[in-house]
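Form 12-C: Joint structure prediction
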Amino acid sequence: MLLYKLPLMKNYRKRELIATCKKNGGSNLIRNINKLLRKPKQKNNDIQAEQERQDVKPVDFLSNHFDHNVEAFRMVYDRCSDVVFRPFLLFGKKRATIIYIEGITNVEGMEEFVLSPLIKETASETQPLNEFLENKLPISKVKRMHTIAECIESISSGNPILLYEGESAGFSLGLAKWEKRGIEEPIAEVGIRGPREGFNESLEVSTSQLRRIIKSPALKIQSMKIGSYTQTTVAIAYIDGLVDPTLIEEITNRLKRIEIDGILESEYIEEMIEDNPYSPFPQILSTERPDTACSSLLEGRAVILVEGTPFSLIAPISLFSLLQSHEDYYQRFMVGTLIRWLRYSFLSISLLLPSFYVAILTFHQEAIPTALLLSVSASRDAVPFPAVVEALLMEIMFEALREAGVRLPKQIGSAVSIVGALVIGQAAVQAGLVSAPMVIVVAITGISSFMIPRYIAGIAIRILRFPIMLLAGTLGLLGIMMGIISIVIHLCGLRSFGVPYLQPLAPLKGRELKDVLWRSPLWKMDTRPHLTGEFNRYRQSPDLAPSSKKGGDTQ
Amino acid sequence: MKNILHILCIFGLILLLSGCWDRVEVNDLAIVTAAAIDIKDDNQIELSLQVFIPKALSTGGGQGGSGQGGGGAATLVRSQRGSNISDALSKLQSKIPRKVFWGQCKVFIFGEKLAKQGIQEHMDFLLRHPQPRERAYLYVSKGNPKDALEVLPPLERYSGEVLRELSDLHIGMQVTMQDVQEGLVGVAQAGAFPFIKILPPGKGEEKLQGIPYIVGTAVFKKDKMVGTMSEKATRGILWLRNEMEAYTVILKPEGVKGEVSLNPVSARIKLIPQIRNDKWKMLVNVDTEGAVVQNGTNLALTSPKSIQTVEKAYQEDIKDRIELAIQQAQHKMKADIIKFSKEFYRKYPKEWKKVENRWDEVFPKVEVEVNVEAHIRRQGYINKPGGLPEKEVKKQ
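Section 2 - Result
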């Protein structure tokens, strides 16, 4: 009996659902405010009349009727428990309402500077009320809003809206204030010397940090909103006169193309605007250091700041930008140069060492010194796997450990690393599953992959390590060479906002090698790198090198 | 995009088609550390290989965890007879469970008997095979070369390493496969190999703990060994070939009692060929410097006069050695191992052409003049003879 009834019931339910959907305006996916405000096509008889009277449209201006306006907002903020409507009597005469969202509005300020003066004061009617509000309220930002959409935006960003009887406009009061994280040391890019400030989740703080470093009004910050639900503010910062105007145009165009539900992190932007989406190499640099961002600005690059994340984007870049660290410039140039060379050599070790080990052990045993081969063969004697399998196993194990260590809570993370070290290092060798030299190779590779200052670049190298290892295991050194050649070809084809990825090397620009192959002393870096289009070549006066003859007039 | 992915997949699979065809794991290799080749009475070649045993070296890797350490031998020696090397090798492979790998073999030892019969055929195998190194050292051993492989040297891991290290010290001749190939193919058509013997184990050492060591030079004419040279004559050859390194010259200066020992520090040798009136002459100019290592005389080496005395003795000594070596090579062996022919060929190509076919006859008639310029540049930490009372030191 019951079983027989069930499909019938299901059918009924379905029909009901479709009906409700249609009632709600044909689609139950409401993508933005405009849709929320749009007049439903199929109206319910009960509210039809009321809605027609109100006639609310997104671009609709506020009506003269105070009640209608309030009702319109109540409809928009239906079932939003965090939105507060505060009705009161303006000067004891006119009805008024303040609409704000709890938590992002400065409530104390509102009580002190808005509610108390407006409720108490018995204003003389000599001055029109709207002028009074704009001129006499002790608040820095008061703005008249004429459309409902404007008002909603103002409320969402924390500025309360004041509506009162007899006025067809709302007043946006600049009282936004919410809990922000303080400025902290950037965790992903630490250093010994240099500023300890990092960008912040709130955009204003980040832009203010840029402005504090570059005081010139030539620093322009253009903002736009992306994300139909999140309405995330994205700001493009650049220095007028240093940047190629077409670059800003291109960035703006690419940003405008993005139509997406929401932007939660700058990676969303990065993936939407990069030149070669199928490359493992990042073509946009992300940084959480204001000093790094500013140095890029001064080189004529653009910085894209995204609300809600401390990571800003820098474009255009080249491969070598990923291998430079902010500390290269905060140390003596010789130290910076040596460390840079160290980094380059460890980059190749990180990419190739396990592959070389595998290739030499399986194809080119004659290529290493006899004593070394004998030691290796002695320690490999009991190992049951071929060298490729051994290498892949260990490398995957290492990557898993690294990932676990990053993602897990700190307390468990240390336990994981202890277990991992025991498993990988000690037990595996003693059990005869892997050879000791392999452990050393994996360890060196691991260390060297952490030498790359940008985490994303390091990951790209790590991904490429595995195919090269397979090539080495099948074709030996020949395979490694093929792998290297194909990577180089790929790199030659990459571009970042029109700038070739291997810029100062290919195409060769001798003038710019000073900041790539080595780190010249700052007094020698007279010229900016040339990115695209017109550029402002000189960044400092020539002949800045200090010497005893340039002491000036003091005796 | 899908097409590109397909193409990428196909290319990726092409790479794997080779299927690792010549992949060999280290565990499957029998690493040859030294090889010996000799001929037996029945005219059969005997090939002996010294193969490294990884197990002997591994510590902790296997079960039990206790390494065998230095107790066991690090190598094993297997030998096999065959009509030639390749035949013997293919038979030998059936006795060794791992693939024979020549890539690290740096020592090849020929038996004296085989050397006298000619080594050309065997050199062909070693040069043709892709694995043996061209820079491997070649030796000729007195007696059975297999014995040299079987000894268990107390200091090194295996006897092959002993020989290699000795060669690297330039104690005797240092001859690689490439040198031999060049010498035999080139204008001189002669070669010199280090000649080795086995040093018997000392008192208290086990029976096999002797080591092979270099005693002199085996001289080859064409590909056949014609005789040996003593250690002293070998030094002279080393002087001429500019391969002199660590050894000590002991001399007796005129007019004083005792000996002075010197270490040659640097040496420049110039071979200047001359043909005058159809008379072939070779000028050997030696310019050398030495450092005093021991002074058993009462000469104070600070004064120029006493230094001159010593220098003169030094010159005489070197001249004697070189002349001895040339005498042996030129008249006893009649083999041009000093490469006079090359010098003549370079300077007088036309004249050389005429004698090319009868160089064997011409070579012994070449007149040799040796001029030695020897200096003493360093006296060591003390100037006066150590431990000698001031009164007895001869001042000049």
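Section 3 - Comments
Chain A has three domains: 21-173, 203-317, 340-500. The radius of gyration of chain A is 32 Å.
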